[in-house]
User: What shape does this take?
Amino acid sequence: MRIILCGFGVVGQSLAKLLDSRTEDLYAQYGIKPRVVGVFDSKGSAVDTSGLDLNRLVEIKKKFGTVKKYANKNANLSGLDLIDDLDADVLVESTVSNYKDAEPGMTHITNALKKGLHVVSVNKGPLALAFPSLMELAEYNQVLLRFSGTVGGGTPILNYAKNSLRGERVLSFQGILNGTTNYILTNMANGMSFKSALLDAKKRGYVEADESLDLDGLDAAAKLVILANWIMGMRVTLPDIKRTGIRNVSSSDIKKAEKKNCAIKLIASCNKELVVAPKEVLQDDPLCVNGTLNAISFTSEHSGTQTIIGRGAGGVETASSILRDLLDIRQEISRNGAANYF
Ligand code: HSE
Assistant: This one.
């Protein structure tokens, strides 16, 4: 399986380490031989059609802050150049999510799909802005678009609702999909002011470079778009979400909620309408998780309400979700009778 990796931040590097450490086991257990043939970061690129040395790649990135020092040749190619020029099977898109025009991820994904590459995206921007048309494009080109890591990081929330609940009709769901705001609200419930809770979350590296993505509920809204499309079959994008962040949640709101045995959580919900907003949740509801945890409750027609809880996004967690998607793609391809070299 020849892979192009666009974006080599925490997630990309975690994936490189994961693939490097699991080479033999992946082949023995799943018959998959992942070979990263091109990597692009914001400063440059590295290419080796026979497979980059992933350990060395991570070291170079650590030392120079870019992969472009990996070799003298092909160091200045763009992500698009890699997609256009290299023979590959899968694009892994992990550049930063942006919700204005979703670039550069949008161009990477659309070009890869048009070229017949399968795509694994952990970048939420393109999906939040254009989920329905990207799925159509993938279908038209008879390739797979997967995105397990976009919701819940390593916790298989999307797979759970799509596959484990197969045949059921999910009627509604609600969840805590943003770990950073959950961490801030938990600290506020423990007596911290919003300001110090935010500062603490920043110190721990939880907050997005653009803090508005977390605080104003954009990240949670993007995840809600993905869930609504993938699980509920809705054709919606980011402007369809009613969104309120946590900036106006005060310590006194939290105390008032406590008196009713509730906590205030930033809840993304799909029940008649799609909403992200702070909401009171009973403290003994399984959904009421603390710290950076994510949780989601699906209510379905015959099997009632089920809650799945787990760690949200993190480098290794998200890398493990990419691996899951790569294995899905491998399985799908072999089901369709493609060659075994994969
Ligand atoms: N900022 C997000 C969160 C991580 O706090 O959950 C990326 O999905």
